[in-house]
TrEMBL record:
Protein's UniProt keywords contain Oxidoreductase: yes
InterPro entries given in the database record: ADH-like_N, AOR-like, ER, GroES-like_sf, NAD(P)-bd_dom_sf, Quin_OxRdtase/zeta-crystal_CS
Protein name: Enoyl reductase (ER) domain-containing protein
Matching Pfam families: ADH_N, ADH_zinc_N_2
Keyword set includes Nucleotide-binding: no
Keywords tagged on the record: NAD, Oxidoreductase
Domain Enoyl reductase (ER): 21-316
Family recorded in the similarity comment: Belongs to the zinc-containing alcohol dehydrogenase family. Quinone oxidoreductase subfamily.
Entry-linked Gene3D superfamilies: Medium-chain alcohol dehydrogenases, catalytic domain (3.90.180.10), NAD(P)-binding Rossmann-like Domain (3.40.50.720)
Organism: Stylosanthes scabra
Amino acid sequence: MAASTGSIPSHIKAWVYNEYGNIEDTLKLDTNIAIPELKDDQVLIKVLAAALNPVDYKRALGLFKDTDSSFPTAPGYDVAGVVVKVGSNVKKFKVGDEVYGDINESAVKPKATGSLAEYTSAEEKVLAHKPSNLSFVEAASLPLAIITAYQGIERAQFSADKSILVLGGAGGVGSLVIQLAKQVFGASKVAATASTGKLELLRELGVDLPIDYTKENFEELPEKFDFVYDTVGQSERALKAVKEGGQVITIAGPATPPAIWFFLTSDGGVLEKLRPYLESGKVKAVLDPKSPLPFSKVIEAFAYLKTNRATGKLVIYPIP
């Protein structure tokens, strides 16, 4: 029997679109969306905060239309909130638990009702307990980006005696790659690119060699690296910055071979594994100065995200 708390509405507020196109043009606030049906392995979450990701506006353009859910679509992968109902097979969570996660195990097979809604559902396996020291805003900023960062570093079989260059070090994923490489994987040296005004942030995150991409071309530096993690879509240049036998991974494909184009698989187990680093403050959420933006400002938030100027993550909070 599913356990639940309080009165859960049958219809909810959500930002939705009913056709593919530019997300700023198609997204509308709908106050009468049916609440998601709960499967046995899922929990229902009262959404308190949601982060925006580039995948949201790429999906809205129809990039995954062959595998996408049906309209209406409420975007949003990252969620932080409170469990209000649990499916009959759920073991890890109970009503009242504070949780966070990327609700879509496969990025290209996303749910119809995402996190830009008052309630959303997610499988137990993609969620984790929210670290007690993190606000809901900080927690919402992390899942997709930190899992992408972690799994990409792991995919490269990175180890403690190796050096890494992060392209786009001040962005949502890049800022976490830097911290994980340093704090979790014990990188011997971390270099990263950013624009002039963001070099200080790179130093604060632990970067040994900050590179101002407005003033120098990273691939022309005499120093080469064991691993390049490309978050910006420059894999061809990245291949010139890697040592012989080194590896380039990009999350902004398509990749120039032998660089690898990498997609995450959402996994609450990664979040649980990283919990000690988050609770100790060794790895921190990085929020754009505009964060959080209120639920009413979702369209403006997407327009800003598309400029590629955000530092860290854009989070929507509070959600009614």
